[in-house]
Amino acid sequence: MREYRFERPGTVTEAVRRSGSDTAYLAGGTTLVDLMKLEVMTPGRVLDINRLPLRGLDATGGGLRIGALERMTDVAADPRVRLGYPMLSQALELSASGQLRNMASIGGNLLQRTRCGYFRDVSMPCNKRQPGSGCPAIRGENRMHAVLGTSDSCVATHPSDLAVALAALDARVQLQGRDGVRTVNLCDFYLLPADTPHLEHDLRPGELVTGVMVPRLDWAQRSIYLKIRDRQSYEFALSSAAVAIRREGDTIVEARVAVGGMGTRPWRLPAVERALAGRPATSNTYAAAATAAVDGTRPLRHNAFKPELMQRTLIRALLELEQTR
C-alpha cells in the first residue's frame, strides 16, 4: 500500500470541496482497503466520510429512502425492508459474509469494483485500470465474466447483488457534488464499457452518493432474489435474478425482472417483463418468457453456459415465488 493522506471532513459540502482526482471516499472500506493493498487503487488522499449525516432509513408515502452510510446488515434486518421489499433483504443477506455486511455501507456496495482477476492483478493489462492496455479476459480465463453489455474493451461482470434488486425496483441514486444535488435512475447510473470501461458510473468529479430512493411498490411484497454460485457460503454470483410479480387471480398483470452475474452492469430485462404480463402464471409461461432473456448475449469460451443458466435461474425464481403465496 502506498502512502496517502487521511482526512475526516465534518460535512458533505466539505467532503465534496476537498475531493480531487486523486481522492477516494472511505465508508466501510471493505472494497477500497483491499484494492489499496493490491495497489489497484492508489489515492493520494482518503476522506473518511463515516461522520457525515448520511444514515437513516425512512419510509414515506413515496417509498423508502436509504442513507448511503447505512450498513448492509441493518438495512436487511429492517422490518420495512424485509416485509415490504423481500428481494432487497434477500439480496443483501446473500451478498457477503456476516462480518463484511456489518461493515459494508449501502453506498459503498453500489460503488464496489469488479472482481475480475485481471483488474485486481497489477501485473496484467486491464482497460478498466489502465485505459488502452487491453482486456486479457476476452481470450483468457473468463468463466465468471459477463455475457451482456460487453464490448471489445471489457467483459468484466458487475459484482453487486443489491444493485440488481434495486434495478428491478426502479430505484434512484441521490448524489451531491459541487454543482448541487441530483438524482439518477440506478440503471442509468452504471455505464456500459464500450471503449471507455474505466468510466463506470455517471459520477461527476467529487460527487458523493448520499442515498438511495426506492419507489413505493406495494406488490413488491411478492418478490424474490435468487442467487446461484459455486459455494453457498460466500461467493459472487454466477447468475442471479430479482423478480417481483403482480397478479390478478391466475394472471400476471405486471412484472419486474433483473439479473446479475451476467452483465457489465445490473441488467434489467424489459422483454421478459413484457412476455410475462397478461399471461397465466404457469411454468410454460415462465419458460417462454425466459427465452427473451438471452437476446443480445455474447458468450465467451469459458462462459458459454451462462445464457442457459440465466434462463434456468429466472424460471426457478418465478416458481419459487409462486410457493410464497
TrEMBL record:
Keyword Chloroplast set for record? no
* Keyword Ribonucleoprotein among record annotations: no
SMART domains given for it?
CO_deh_flav_C (SM01092)
Q: Name one GO molecular function term.
A: oxidoreductase activity
Its keywords, alphabetically, are: Oxidoreductase
> What's one Pfam family here?
FAD_binding_5
Q: Where is the FAD-binding PCMH-type domain?
A: 1-219
Q: What is the designated name of this protein?
A: FAD-binding PCMH-type domain-containing protein
This protein's species is Kutzneria albida DSM 43870
